[in-house]
Amino acid sequence: MSDAERKPVRSIQTPMRLTYHYTAGIATSRFLHGIAEGRILGQRCPVCTKVYVPPRGSCPRCAVATEEEVHVSDRGTILTFAIVRVPSENLDVPLPFACVHVLLDGADVPFFSVVQGCPLDEVRIGMRVAAAWVEPDRLAPTLQSIRWFEPTGEPDVPFDQLREHL
Amino acid sequence: MAERCAVIGIGQTHHTARRDDVSIAGLVREAAERALADAGLDWGDIDAVVLGKAPDMFEGVMMPELYLADALGAAGKPLLRVHTAGSVGGSTAVVAANLIQAGLHERVLTVAFEKQSESNAMWALTVKTPLQSAVVAGAGGYFAPLIRSYMQRSGAPEDTGIRVALKDRSNANKNPYAHLREPDLSFETVANSPMLWDPIRFHETCPSSDGACALVLSSERAATGGAHPPAWIHATAMRSEPTQFAGQEKVNPRAGQECAQEVYAKAGITDPRREIDCAEIYVPFSWFEPMWLENLGFAPVGSGWKMTYEGATAPDGDLPVNMSGGVLSSNPIGASGMLRFAEAAMQVRGQAGAHQVDGARTALGHAYGGGSQFFSMWIVRSERP
Amino acid sequence: MREVAIVSFAQSRHARRDLRNEVEILLPVVQEAVQRSGVERPFDFTCSGSTDFLQGQPFAFVLALDAAGAWPPIAESHVEMDGAWALYEAWVKIQTGQAETALVYSFGKSSPGDLPEVLSRQLDPYVVAPLWPDSVSLAALQARAWLEKSGRSERDLAAVAARSRRDAKGNPHATVAGDFAIDDLLDAPYLASPLRKHDCAPISDGAAALVLVAGDRARQVCERPAWIRGIDHRADLHALGARDLTRSASTRIAGEKAGVARRPVDVAELHAPFTHQEYILREALGLAEDTQINPSGGALAANPMMVAGLIRIGEAARRIHDGSARRTVAHATSGPCLQQNLVCVLEGE
Predict the structure, then answer these.
(1) Cα–Cα distance between C57 and C39 in angstroms, integer?
(2) Domains in chain B with CATH codes
(3) What residue segments make up the domains of chain A, in order of their start?
């Protein structure tokens, strides 16, 4: 067969599998151990005193290590949100769902999670929500121990009070 | 101290969902050969090569500049690989320009690409480790909450994003290289398209593209005598800030504001809206046009949407934006930033064909990446600095 | 060219497996380099080197920015390469006149994955990578070719390993150090003939950082600045069958451009992750017999990927800083079988 008669190769499959053994790091490990006990632990920056959760061992704003551990509430306020309707690999949650930034009481950075327990069109900026934990015997050092956040019924926080965090 | 630097060759591929007629090497070479032809040069004229692309996990090739050295004629030459997330195409051009400005080389080839069909970008952007629950669905899932935040703060009319999408897609119809070409797209079609990451609709979202872009940059000595006039680089700037920290302004990031201030100051621009003739800015989701118009100082905070709404950013407006159709119409991620820089250069060279802005002499190229935290920009002009 | 000097250098202790995250590894290293530099933040430019595939997470460098001191926002860039090339980009930025000071850092956490297997992802994705040739096997092909051509023996390779590990006893950052008899080393089984474990660099997690300052300002902040008198980098063809693996053409060109041979070299820090590569590099750079090679122990003592090249430059600078050398050469490599190479010549006043 001449080259002209051959069909070009337009695609080949080259499966790739690499196995990684992740480590969470020191600060995040402590945080995950807290989660396994049903507690949310943040870290406070020694310079700007802001509280980070989940902690990564440093304050990106001040570029210093954070060591002081602080308890953060599992309640908070929705800063902003999106309704996800598009499928994506690796997603844990059935579609559609509300992906939210929650400012936990006592923390200074938003926490990424999902809201359930109310119609999607009721999710709004300023809404008060609380973590819904898995059953106590299923608590483990993973964020999957928090199934989602759900409305508490408390009055909304006015937008002006959230401006600094948006 | 810095040598002058000019864009003397521009090349790009036809951006499309799947270029299965070429390998990754074939794709980058196609753009590079077009840039060399535009400059009237050959491979042997090039002193150094600078390659940019977004995360290697997109194609599953680690540090692909190593494998691409052969296709890019880099053997025996300096070869650099830049990666600054979504802004990389712009940053790569800046690094290449620096090589000329430092007086190290006469002619540098810079190339950026993404071949999304050989990969799964949504997978690579939603990596799930046992330590975290995955709730952020790709780039749309990340940016949709920021857009909602902008909508709330600015009080912009809800159809602002639809208008941006219509304008950019309409511009793309005049660009033979654009991926999405939808001459019949109507307001109703965009408005009724499904919400992917509410408030982002399907037609307000960038596509996934295969594509590459290449530029030949040269010193002042080597810039003359080509078939086309050079685009002179008057200023470049890059700025970064951390991903997330307390009190961060995510909708109007300070890194973007300061990057713009620096690039204007270096180019001697004091009133950007008046002095810049057109701008190619990185808008992967329609609402980012008004957000970046404010961040770039073209409009006061909270009123960027008015420029869109009043048609100021349309091809016949006072500041045409994304004449090429922008990222909304073609998105080979790693190349998307360089395409913005290239379009700015094409405009001041008078090379943009049906999407040429009449009399464009000063243009801005803009790119951003990460969680709205990496910025790169340049100002090019038809006049020598 | 503008005068640019390295005024400080810091590195982590390079463990086989560091349980800290990349920011926790990097932060103290950056702080130490900054503090020793005597330069106040903000730096005019910051540049880093790393690669996502090591830890299997995209955008590894993005979170590492948390350690850089990026607030208020900074002029910053990143290469998906060894930090030695980040240093090059920073040096270029200073040459353009857009910066007087620069912070350069890199980090690499190889421990989460199987490094030799991960590195196979650097190869031609259509015809080579699908065969999964690991980095040690490819280096063994090169070693075999070099042994055949040079007439040297595996004992010569073991001698490099023994010397490197012995010298590393004085390096508190090393992953591997100690006294080893060449005969004992040669008793070990092959990993990939002709290479044994001692011929291969250890796998290390680590980070390094240094500070560049231009002109007289460097003299003000540093007693003995390490002046960059020449720096150049070159690539070779990627296809292993298309180049002579027993030589390093790109190192030779980079060495000539950087001016290695202009004056005698006291110390050379060569980034040779495999023993035979040290011989190839010495020849390519034309180093004299009396040049001391890798007093730190080199990559054979600690090889945090994407950092080991920058460490060579930092170690070469350190010899100038402490007054023990007047002229040093540092080399960094990247890619399979020494595909890409950078050479940097440093001098005291």
Answers:
(1) 33
(2) 5-118+209-223 (3.40.47.10)
(3) 26-165
At B134 the pLDDT is 54
- Coil/strand/helix, residue B87: coil
Of C71, C95, C238, the CB nearest to B67: C238
Hey, is the C-beta of B134 within 8 angstroms of any chain C C-beta? no
How close is the nearest chain C Cα to the Cα of B26, in Å?
12
Those chains having 3 or more beta-carbon pairs within 8 angstroms of chain B are: A, C
Question: C4-114+203-221 belongs to which homologous superfamily?
Answer: Thiolase/Chalcone synthase (3.40.47.10)
Which of C63, C76, C124 comes nearest B238 by C-beta?
C76
Residue A71 pLDDT grade (very low, low, confident, very high; cuts 50, 70, 90): very high
Q: Which residue of A lies nearest to C17 if distances are taken between CA atoms?
A: A23
Confidence of residue B121 (pLDDT cuts 50, 70, 90): low
Contact criterion met (CB < 8 Å) for B69 and C340: yes
Residue B297 pLDDT > 90, yes or no?
yes
For C231-289, what is each residue's pLDDT tens digit? Answer: 999 999 999 999 999 999 999 999 999 999 999 999 999 999 999 999 999 999 999 99
Residues 220-239 of C with CB under 8 A from A: none
Model pLDDT, residue B38: 96
Percentage above 70 pLDDT, chain A:
95
Of B336, B257, B377, the residue nearest B85 (C-alpha): B336
Instruction: Give CA–CA dist B67/B128, Å, rounded.
Output: 28
CA dist A127 and A124 (Å) reads 6
- Of the two residues A6 and A30, the one the predictor is more confident about is A30
Long-range contacts at C152-157 (CB < 8 A, ≥ 24 apart):
C152/C279, C154/C186, C154/C194, C154/C196, C155/C182, C155/C186, C156/C279, C157/C194, C157/C195, C157/C199, C157/C275, C157/C276
